Automatic annotation (TrEMBL):
<comment type="subunit">
    <text>Associates with the 50S ribosomal subunit.</text>
</comment>
<feature type="binding site">
    <location>
        <begin position="55"/>
        <end position="59"/>
    </location>
    <ligand>
        <name>GTP 1</name>
    </ligand>
</feature>
<keyword id="KW-0677">Repeat</keyword>
<dbReference type="Pfam" id="PF14714">
    <property type="entry name" value="KH_dom-like"/>
</dbReference>
<dbReference type="InterPro" id="IPR031166">
    <property type="entry name" value="G_ENGA"/>
</dbReference>
<feature type="domain" description="EngA-type G">
    <location>
        <begin position="2"/>
        <end position="166"/>
    </location>
</feature>
<comment type="function">
    <text>GTPase that plays an essential role in the late steps of ribosome biogenesis.</text>
</comment>
<feature type="binding site">
    <location>
        <begin position="8"/>
        <end position="15"/>
    </location>
    <ligand>
        <name>GTP 1</name>
    </ligand>
</feature>
<dbReference type="InterPro" id="IPR005225">
    <property type="entry name" value="Small_GTP-bd"/>
</dbReference>
<dbReference type="InterPro" id="IPR016484">
    <property type="entry name" value="GTPase_Der"/>
</dbReference>
<protein>
    <recommendedName>
        <fullName>GTPase Der</fullName>
    </recommendedName>
</protein>
<dbReference type="Pfam" id="PF01926">
    <property type="entry name" value="MMR_HSR1"/>
</dbReference>
<dbReference type="InterPro" id="IPR027417">
    <property type="entry name" value="P-loop_NTPase"/>
</dbReference>
<dbReference type="InterPro" id="IPR006073">
    <property type="entry name" value="GTP-bd"/>
</dbReference>
<dbReference type="InterPro" id="IPR032859">
    <property type="entry name" value="KH_dom-like"/>
</dbReference>
<feature type="binding site">
    <location>
        <begin position="229"/>
        <end position="233"/>
    </location>
    <ligand>
        <name>GTP 2</name>
    </ligand>
</feature>
<feature type="domain" description="EngA-type G">
    <location>
        <begin position="176"/>
        <end position="351"/>
    </location>
</feature>
Length: 435
């Protein structure tokens, strides 16, 4: 999966373009959990190609003079971390000195760069846009991120540069790829160090092809697995890590590359907004998830402390609550084996494939006993169901009137399915389709 970074000066329309590209609807879903999530990255697909989009603009801070420095940093990071870059400029302003400077940075880059000339709402603006040839970055796309014109063509061009999804051979024995992610100071490095210890059982370093090497193979507690490089592992560039944008970028990238996300939470701080973002991102990417509550040694315990803590975290990850939560201490090395064992289990659960005949026997019985509620006198009849031949668990229920199946019923079916089969830690998708 490719990562697209949107760069440009403030107020050129980066966020509006971002929202268009990721067809942002999650905000509504989020209101259910009562959390406002400030997101500058999203997941989308176009012409069968999947990609993550990052709006670098969300990370600029306050006043004008810091702006320039900040923008320069963001463009530099985008150049390092993204696979494709969309440079947004504003036709009303023409080429500003800042644009020229960004262009100068981008001209040195070998990655695909798309210039999006924004606010082109009419033919006259179209003529004005010609000026942007002078950026020296080749052709440009005119868009109006307000009314959406031109974004389709821009996406066509972008999708063309994104490699087709790899065919994954399910039979092939692949090592689990785990990414350890979490907020700064949650204890990611401590966890990894405690895990791989002094006797660093590194087996090989699988060199990345076009990218930096991402995976490092480990053998620990009798399990073979790859740890996917994250900001926590790579401590070289301290300065970069100070930037929230940088850590988000690393998290996005490592999530893309992993099978299971090991989300480390600082027990003394609890599950916070940023954790929710990462959790959401993992779920969106249909990755397995294990939550580690680290620094458990620091928490004063009474009867039920763990149970209550767990219940609270589950509230915060609703509606996807079928996720293992393990209480650990990287410091005292408590339950580290359990943590890895659980991650391996989630990896296996994610590969669960239920034979169609058995699935029908079981799930048709369930939906027969609890059919979808009739809407306007219409009765939905589910006739057949199956797990789809997809890389991650997805299920189709074929029925006469799929449009009458509402979300609560979908959730009911998902919960039943999770009760019967083991998909712990694994996001699943359920479709209702016309037979
Ligand atoms: P990272 O930024 O997520 O990699 O976090 P670090 O691994 O650098 O840890 C941040 C701080 O928390 C350090 O001072 C660690 O010593 C401390 N720490 C990490 N894990 C634990 C733990 O399980 N218990 C306690 N008491 N402290 C921990």
């Amino acid at each position: 999966n490719s990562i697209i970074a949107i760069v440009g000066r403030p107020n050129v329309g980066k966020s509006t373009l971002f929202n268009r590209l990721v067809q942002r609807r999650e905000a509504i879903v989020d209101s259910v959990s009562g959390v406002t999530r400030d997101r500058h990255y999203g997941k989308s697909d176009w012409n069968g190609k999947e990609f993550s989009v990052i709006d670098t603009g969300g990370y600029a801070i306050g006043s004008d003079d810091i702006f320039e420095e900040e923008i320069r940093k963001q463009v530099a990071l985008a150049i390092d971390e993204a696979d494709l870059i969309v440079f947004v400029v504003d036709v009303e302003d023409g080429i500003t000195p800042m644009d020229a400077e960004v262009a100068k940075l981008l001209r040195k880059v070998k990655k695909p760069i798309f210039i999006a000339v924004n606010k082109v709402d009419n033919a006259m603006r179209d003529a004005d846009a010609v000026e942007f040839y002078n950026l020296g970055l080749g052709n440009y796309h005119t868009i109006s991120s307000i009314n959406g014109s031109g974004t389709g063509e821009l996406l066509d061009a972008i999708a063309e540069k994104i490699p087709a999804p790899e065919e994954v051979d399910l039979e092939k024995k692949e090592l689990p790829r785990f990414a350890v992610v979490g907020r700064p100071n949650a204890g990611k490095s401590s966890f990894i160090n405690a895990l791989i210890g002094e006797d660093r059982n590194i087996v090989t370093n699988i060199a990345g092809t076009t990218r930096d090497s991402i995976d490092t193979k480990y053998n620990r507690f009798g399990f073979d697995f790859n740890l996917v490089d994250t900001a926590g592992i790579r401590k070289k560039s301290r300065v970069k890590e100070d930037l929230e944008f940088y850590s988000v970028m690393r998290a996005v990238r490592s999530i893309e590359y992993s099978d299971v996300i090991i989300l480390v939470i600082d027990a003394t701080r609890g599950f916070e907004g940023q954790d929710q973002n990462i959790f959401w991102l993992a779920e969106k990417n249909r990755k397995g998830v294990v939550i580690l509550i680290n620094k458990w040694d620091l928490v004063e315990k009474e009867t039920n402390t763990m149970r209550d803590y767990e219940a609270k975290v589950r509230e915060q990850i609703a509606p996807f609550t079928d996720v293992p939560i393990v209480f650990i201490s990287a410091l005292t090395k408590q339950r580290l084996f359990k943590a890895i064992e659980t991650a391996v289990e989630v990896f296996e659960n994610r590969k669960n494939r239920i034979p169609t005949s058995k699935f029908n026997d079981v799930m048709l019985e369930v939906v027969k006993n609890y059919p979808p509620p009739a809407i306007k006198g219409k009765f939905v009849k589910i006739k057949y169901c199956m797990q789809l031949p997809t890389q991650t668990p997805q299920f189709a229920f074929f029925c006469n009137l799929p449009q009458y199946v509402r979300d609560p019923y979908r959730r009911f079916v998902e919960n039943k399915l999770r009760e019967i089969y083991n998909f712990s830690g694994v996001p699943i998708t359920i479709y209702f389709r016309q037979k």
